[in-house]
Design brief:
Mean pLDDT: 90
Strand content: 35-45%
Distance between the termini: 34 Å
Order of helices and strands: HEEEEEEEEEEEEEEEEEEEEEE
Radius of gyration: 21 Å
Shape: elongated
Largest sheet: 7 strands, antiparallel
Helix content: under 10%
Number of helices: 1
Strand order of the largest sheet: 1-4-5-9-8-7-6
């Protein structure tokens, strides 16, 4: 019997899942080393869509302590959040840990690590992506670990795409780029000149995508429910360069199809149901 792969991946969701990575993985907090490993795994806790990294405890340079009553404010974490979902509470069995970096008087990061109880991952500790600065081989990386089973394709399209909300047109063009990303809905990226800018205003929201970079957002005052409706990566996002491999969408604007009305060659496109709905 044939098996649809996406259905099988969804079926695995309630389980603790992992995949080894051959990349050398390092993490730092400021100038202080936290871990250095060539035995890291990409880890998905049960019912979690986005992964984290886990490494053998022998590869951890920082000190790990049981999570207790921590005194004082938590240290400032670098950059915007890589996910709307926090590192804890955890859905796998294990022990939350405090990470102590920089010696006895160094910074204490409560609940920034998690010692896994699963026997297949005995000795492995997972780490909060947003608490540290990360490197793969010699290059800095941002955001949650990349899914080794996912990829991104971009294709220019001649389909006339139109985005509106409450009857007000926000963008329209026959020269868009469609981005296809694994199990996520396709996204349409418009040229800036095809966007009705007097209907949009900058939004303070910033998010990190490990594939595309840092996104800036816009909302549409007086339209919808006030939440952000559009975003951009790279050029067009001042001071936030995108990744070179994503140059085809740099400076282009995408809209949440979950929150706007989209048409393709005059036909309505159903709003997808995702966590952004």
């Amino acid at each position: 019997m044939a098996v649809r792969i996406s259905h099988e991946l969804k079926r695995l969701g309630p389980q603790l899942r992992y995949e080894p990575t051959p990349k050398r993985l390092r993490a730092r907090f400021g100038d202080a080393p936290v871990l250095d490993s060539r035995r890291a795994v990409v880890l998905w806790e049960p019912e979690r869509y986005l992964p984290v990294h886990a490494v053998p405890e022998d590869d951890v340079v920082a000190r790990l302590e049981p999570l207790g009553a921590e005194s004082g404010p938590a240290p400032h974490l670098p950059g915007p959040a890589s996910s709307r979902y926090p590192f804890s509470p955890h859905t796998a069995d294990g022990e939350p840990l405090t990470v102590v970096v920089g010696g006895t008087d160094g910074a204490r990061l409560p609940d920034a690590a998690f010692r896994l109880a699963d026997p297949d991952l005995a000795g492995y500790v997972a780490f909060d992506t947003d608490a540290f600065t990360w490197f793969e081989e010699a290059e800095p990386v941002i955001g949650h670990p990349r899914d080794p089973f996912s990829r991104i394709d971009m294709r220019a399209t001649g389909v006339r795409m139109r985005v509106s909300l409450d009857g007000v047109v926000l963008a329209e063009s026959s020269e868009t780029v469609r981005l296809f990303e694994g199990r996520l809905p396709p996204r349409t990226y418009f040229r800036p000149e095809d966007v009705v800018w007097d209907r949009l205003e900058p939004d303070p929201l910033r998010t990190i995508c490990p594939y595309k970079g840092v996104a800036v957002y816009w909302s549409a005052p007086g339209l919808g429910d006030g939440r952000p409706l559009a975003w951009s990566y790279g050029a067009g996002a001042p001071g936030l360069p995108g990744f070179p491999e994503m140059a085809q969408i740099h400076g282009r604007i995408a809209f949440f199809d979950e929150r706007v009305d989209t048409e393709a060659d005059g036909a309505a496109v159903p709003r997808p149901q995702t966590s952004w709905t």
